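In practice, a research group might receive sequence data for several interacting partners and want a quick structural hypothesis before committing to experiments. The following worked case mirrors that situation: the sequences arrive first, and a predicted assembly follows.
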Amino acid sequence: MSWNSTAGSSLPREGHWISDLNHRNGVERKFPAGSVKFYDTTLRDGEQSVGVVLTPRKKLEIAEALDDLGVGRIEAGFPRVSADDAEAFGLIANGGLRAEIWGFGRALKADIDELLRLGARATVIETPTSAIKLKAYGLNVEEAKRRAAEAIAYARKNGVKVAFFAVDGTRTELEVLRDFYKSALDAGAEELVVVDTIGVCGPEAVEFLVRQVREWVGAPVPLHFHGHNDFGLATACAIAAVRGSAEWIQGTINGMGERAGTGAACGRPRTGAMETRSGRESVHAGEWGGRKPVSHP
Amino acid sequence: MRESGAVASQFHIPEAIEPYSAELVGATRAIVLGKKSGIDSIAIKSKELGISLTTEQQQAVLAVVKRTGTEKRGLVSDAEFMDICAKLRPPV
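A structural hypothesis for the assembly, expressed as tokens:
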């Protein structure tokens, strides 16, 4: 057995001692052609970890380090949360980074206005979609869809690219979820996020759901996957989402985030797993060397 | 342990914010306070500690809790919370 097999992968030739079993007939699963990219939410979901406080300056430092790593998109924060979050967003959005800087907001005009004030060019707009989340927020499906459509249209009218984020999507009835996504696209959302907010799906279920969303919306709509690690499956689910045709994987440095955190966007095991399992280029080989300093600030 | 204000608003419906019941694994559900707390975090914590606050007082306490959590870059303890309440609430 060869320990240094990197056949079909963009991994550097030296220093990988993974098992050939991954590429064995009957074991290896097919992945769609194309590249997979990271959308980093360390500065938003990551900061939601209990007790974590990142100052605006620290957030800028982290953003610069992520940018050096070649991360495609950086979610610089949810500015409506606090003045500090807004300040951090502004610093990063004007920081001259190569990464595309994204915001985060609820389906509320005030959240979008704050993003506009800070010069956001792209944002996630979230709304709860599952029955239990809607009940907790005192909303019904029609009201939630209406709010989402209004917020998305408002952002689009102001030149902001929108990815619609279906909170607790993995516990939403499929027909309801389909309607939310279609309504979001009709209102002007260009991308969609498949979200396992409570971390309750296994990899097979995630692959199914991403594939299902792809069937509903077609090939041209970029799909993201955002998972949580409550059962230790976030990274496996991210790989499954890629198999289901997701183009963007949302995650954080070291997997920090709400409750048990998210999948690690830049930790070595995760990108190693993605490149090993899929043979797809997620971050080019020259950037592997930079990961440890970012993961241990 | 949950710090986020948005989560505190749903704390009364565990299945809305958690993947399984705390009782299944012998865990305790709790709200902790810090930079990310919201008004419902204050309402839940003050009730837990037997402190009665008006809505206006809750808002004032929330502002101090968030500032304290940000400045110390960590959580605000129950003792610190009681101290904040004592300073903002006229003695009965």
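Before designing any experiment, note the following. Chain A touches chain B at residues 47-48, 50-51, 53, 55, 81-82, 84, 132-133, 135-137, 168, 198-200, 230-231, 258-259 (CB under 8 Å). The longest strand of chain A covers residues 100-106.
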